[in-house]
């Protein structure tokens, strides 16, 4: 990053005249010229990067825009060799980074706040990508056209088989049954084809197309061989879900927020005018919620994920307060509890991120390398199982209490914090609904 900043300085800032070696070094690293430069504040001659008289920094804060931006990015993302010394113990050695920070050995590791900001940015961006990919998994344009062609080819094949039966077989009971079966299959796949050709953006078509795609995968599988019991049960469930969506009889979410018999919401401490405004806001919110939950939840999920980073940043100091209360006799300062909170959340985010990546890899490798995919799945599950163990060991090693008392406090903290997470999620949903 510093090299990039230096390059931009050379391209856009440095004068074209040829400099002496001393002048070049002084301009690049911005070291004051001890012989000529004086403090801009008190005009005392400078003998270093700071004024000996008033303490003001010699380096002017009025810099070129690109220099400021480069230095800012460098301050945020310059992990250099500290990254390798930070990330591995963060994952594998509970409380190591925290205790090193408390002991004053900080220069070799990424600072807690910078570490949290970097990991949280990567985590939420990746989470949004994973969920958006899963939500849009219905069919891409090319995949949809390929599936339509496959269905059309199968319908053509069924019609050819029907024609062959009519020509070669007599009007026997078996021939009539075969023709009836083929007619039913032709009609079924024709309906599938119509659903695939429907407008993706209208009503519940997105959900219908998604169910149709999953059904067709099983339909073509059972043409080759009989489906296993679990796949057969899934096939029947998909058929039932698809019929409900198409008929409009699927379970719709009727969301009501009211404390009166007439379905309105009112508070005694508010005036009638303010209660009307509250009801208007709640009505708008519930309408958006019903639309989101009964049709496509994708836009709401994206909105919620977009709000979570800000809310989690607010939740961090509250979690530190919770630690301060639960370990009030540990003689730890609040900033030390905040450091524990930063390291804990950084670990949780990176552990979940690794588990998600391994889960995607597991699904990708399952058809070709099932044994390897199973191993990766076990590792992904093991990472999630490691999270509560890591956090428990971290609290014990930081606060240096016995296993029993640490476990009791850890359980209480986990319970309270789970409630805080649920409340934060609710706020994110409401905030997200306001944005769609």
Automatic annotation (TrEMBL):
UniProt-listed InterPro entries: DUF3667
Membrane-spanning residues: 308-327, 339-358, 370-393, 405-434
Keyword Transmembrane (UniProt): yes
Superkingdom as given in the UniProt entry: Bacteria
Keywords assigned: Membrane, Transmembrane, Transmembrane helix
Protein name (database record): DUF3667 domain-containing protein
Organism: Colwellia psychrerythraea
């Amino acid at each position: 990053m510093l090299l990039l900043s230096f390059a931009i300085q050379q391209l856009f800032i440095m004068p074209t005249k040829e400099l002496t070696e001393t002048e070049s070094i002084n301009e690049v690293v911005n070291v004051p010229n001890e012989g000529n430069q004086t403090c801009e504040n008190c005009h005392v001659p400078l003998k270093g990067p700071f004024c000996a008289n008033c303490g003001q920094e010699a380096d002017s804060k009025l810099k070129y825009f690109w220099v400021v931006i480069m230095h800012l990015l460098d301050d945020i993302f310059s992990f250099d060799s500290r990254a390798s010394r930070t990330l591995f113990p963060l994952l594998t050695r509970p409380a190591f980074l925290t205790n090193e920070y408390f002991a004053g050995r900080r220069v070799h590791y990424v600072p807690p706040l910078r570490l949290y900001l970097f990991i949280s940015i990567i985590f939420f961006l990746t989470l949004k990508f994973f969920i958006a990919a899963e939500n849009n998994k219905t069919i891409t344009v090319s995949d949809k056209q390929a599936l339509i062609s496959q269905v059309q080819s199968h319908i053509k094949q069924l019609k050819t088989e029907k024609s062959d039966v009519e020509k070669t077989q007599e009007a026997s009971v078996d021939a009539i049954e075969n023709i009836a079966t083929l007619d039913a299959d032709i009609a079924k796949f024709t309906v599938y084809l119509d659903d695939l050709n429907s407008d993706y953006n209208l009503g519940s078509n997105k959900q219908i197309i998604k169910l149709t795609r999953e059904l067709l995968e099983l339909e073509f599988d059972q043409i080759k061989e009989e489906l296993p019991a679990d796949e057969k049960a899934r096939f029947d469930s998909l058929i039932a879900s698809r019929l409900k969506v198409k008929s409009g009889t699927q379970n719709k979410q009727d969301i009501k927020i009211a404390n009166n018999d007439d379905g309105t919401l009112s508070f005694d401490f508010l005036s009638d005018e303010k209660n009307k405004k509250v009801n208007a806001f709640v009505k708008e919110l519930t309408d958006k919620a019903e639309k989101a939950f009964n049709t496509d939840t994708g836009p709401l999920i994206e909105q919620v994920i977009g709000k979570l980073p800000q809310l989690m940043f607010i939740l961090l100091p509250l979690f530190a307060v919770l630690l301060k209360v639960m370990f009030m006799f540990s003689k730890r300062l609040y900033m030390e509890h905040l450091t524990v909170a930063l390291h804990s959340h950084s670990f949780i985010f990176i552990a979940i991120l690794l588990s998600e990546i391994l889960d995607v890899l597991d699904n990708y490798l399952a058809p070709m390398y099932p044994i390897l995919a199973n191993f990766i799945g076990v590792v992904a599950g093991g990472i999630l199982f490691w999270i509560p163990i890591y956090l428990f060991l971290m609290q014990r090693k930081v606060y240096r209490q016995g296993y029993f008392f640490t476990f009791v406090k850890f359980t209480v903290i986990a319970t309270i914090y789970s409630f805080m997470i649920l409340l934060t999620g609710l706020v994110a949903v409401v905030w997200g609904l306001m944005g769609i």
